């Protein structure tokens, strides 16, 4: 059911960690295989008067620690295997961060840029409406991911609330602040990526003010990661998005990039002189390479040619197991901050949003950021200690903490009935 390259990747990573943790084979499926998969057909009226149907999914990986939690992706690549893999990764990520959640993920196979705003609203609302029997603030809480944003979350919340006859802010996170969202959520993932990068720089002895970075993906995660790195003096040499890549060995003008993206929505047309080959961008020499777009961009084919000192995984699953094997051999040259640690700022602040919504009591930005950085520091230190103590890669150390946490809870709760 979940077959495909992305789920295979989640499975391969899990098997390696299960071997390390010496988990008996008969226990492994209970930990890895998702609890539920819901597939929905979402019909909408197109602007031209025709009807169209889009396929949507929601995978809830496990409910052992609390409700499931995870983003919703609108992209042409979305399929059951991709959504299931992302749900599994969310589980290990939440457990590593100590959050009372299992992992979930959802999505619709659609290019949201090919829809008008009215069509996007209709599709978002219909997707949530189809999922109402399967979600609630105490069973599954959605959030944004690639191709969705605060507006889509507001439509999800409004649709759910209309059916309940009352406003239920806590059904989704990543909402606008004026619709029950929390301050700091929009920036949380990117700022968290930068925070983990600064921790890694301390460990390898790089001064941020003299450092350089290349960022792939300039959406929510990539843009805030780049802005936050630049605030501490890091020179951003290159950026890219689905429309193209830009590179300047002297450093890009971050304020100009910010203005361009605010006005146009993408990097398209930022500059003709600085346009660059997107595949080559990843291979340029830099201190920090931050893949913040999608899965499987660092592979067996390019991992050996990377010329960075730190890989900061803003995206989920950007490094394939084949690349991991190469990076493991290059452990002394390249410091990897694995995705479930590096981009966990998003779900940590989503958790804060859910808590604030449930309590109807909102925190200020200083409180949100202080708690976020404390949580990231805790996870970062745990991963580094475990990697050192057991001679593991950072990825395997992070996954081992996540998997072990879920396993311990399952064992202690027992198997029902
Ligand atoms: P987004 O839709 O805001 O941005 C995605 C970016 O990737 C866009 O700039 C897009 O143009 C770019 N992109 C797409 N295809 C590309 C390609 N071939 N080459 C270069 N760039 C390309 O999405 P996002 O929320 O920033 O998510 C990005 C990644 O981060 C995803 O892997 C997502 O799962 C992960 N993530 C997101 C969050 C969050 O809070 N949004 C949290 C954790 C992890």
Automatic annotation (TrEMBL):
Pfam families: ELFV_dehydrog, ELFV_dehydrog_N. Keywords: Oxidoreductase. PROSITE patterns: GLFV_DEHYDROGENASE. One of its GO terms (molecular function) is glutamate dehydrogenase (NAD+) activity. Transmembrane segments: none annotated. The keyword Oxidoreductase applies. InterPro entries: Aminoacid_DH-like_N_sf, Glu/Leu/Phe/Val/Trp_DH, Glu/Leu/Phe/Val/Trp_DH_C, Glu/Leu/Phe/Val/Trp_DH_dimer, Glu/Leu/Phe/Val_DH_AS, Glu_DH, NAD(P)-bd_dom_sf, NAD_bind_Glu_DH. SUPFAM superfamilies: Aminoacid dehydrogenase-like, N-terminal domain, NAD(P)-binding Rossmann-fold domains. It comes from the Bacteria. GO terms for biological process: L-glutamate catabolic process. CDD domains: NAD_bind_1_Glu_DH. Belongs to the Glu/Leu/Phe/Val dehydrogenases family. This is Glutamate dehydrogenase. It comes from Haematobacter massiliensis.
């Amino acid at each position: 059911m979940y077959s495909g390259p992305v789920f295979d990747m989640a499975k391969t990573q899990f098997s390696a960690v299960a071997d390390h943790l010496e988990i008996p084979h008969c226990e492994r499926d209970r930990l890895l295989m998702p609890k539920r998969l819901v597939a929905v057909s979402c019909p909408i009226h197109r602007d031209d008067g025709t009807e169209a149907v889009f396929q949507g999914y929601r995978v809830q990986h496990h409910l052992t620690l609390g409700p499931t939690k995870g983003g919703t992706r609108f992209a042409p690549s979305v399929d059951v295997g991709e959504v299931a893999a992302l749900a599994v990764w969310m589980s290990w990520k939440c457990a590593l961060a100590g959050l009372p959640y299992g992992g979930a993920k959802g999505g619709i196979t659609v290019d949201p840029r090919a829809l008008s705003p009215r069509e996007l609203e209709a599709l978002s609302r219909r997707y949530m409406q189809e999922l109402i029997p399967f979600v609630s603030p105490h069973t599954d809480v959605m959030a944004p991911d690639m191709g969705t944003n605060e507006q889509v979350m507001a439509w999800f919340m409004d649709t759910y609330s209309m059916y309940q006859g009352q406003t239920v802010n806590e059904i989704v996170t990543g909402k606008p602040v004026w619709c029950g969202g929390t301050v700091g959520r929009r920036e949380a993932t990117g700022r968290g990526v930068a925070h983990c990068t600064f921790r890694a720089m301390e460990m390898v002895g790089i001064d941020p003010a003299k450092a350089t970075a290349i960022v792939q993906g300039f959406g929510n995660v990539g843009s805030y990661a780049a802005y936050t790195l630049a605030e501490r003096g890091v020179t951003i040499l290159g950026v890219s998005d689905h429309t193209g890549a830009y590179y300047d060995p002297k450093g890009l003008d971050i304020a100009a990039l910010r203005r361009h993206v605010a006005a146009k929505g993408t990097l398209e047309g930022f500059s003709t002189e600085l346009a660059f080959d997107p595949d080559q961008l990843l291979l340029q020499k830099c201190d920090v390479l931050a893949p913040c777009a999608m899965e499987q961009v660092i592979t067996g084919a390019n991992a050996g040619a990377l010329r960075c000192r730190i890989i900061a995984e803003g995206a989920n699953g950007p490094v394939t197991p084949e690349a991991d094997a190469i990076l493991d051999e290059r452990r002394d040259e390249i410091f990897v901050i694995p995705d479930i640690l590096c981009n966990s700022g998003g779900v940590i602040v989503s958790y804060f949003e859910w808590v604030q919504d449930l309590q109807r009591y909102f925190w200020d930005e200083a409180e949100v950021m202080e708690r976020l950085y404390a949580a990231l520091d805790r996870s970062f230190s745990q991963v580094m200690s475990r990697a050192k103590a057991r001679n593991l890669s950072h990825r395997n150390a992070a996954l081992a903490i996540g998997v072990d946490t879920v396993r311990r809870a399952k064992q202690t709760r027992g198997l029902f009935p």
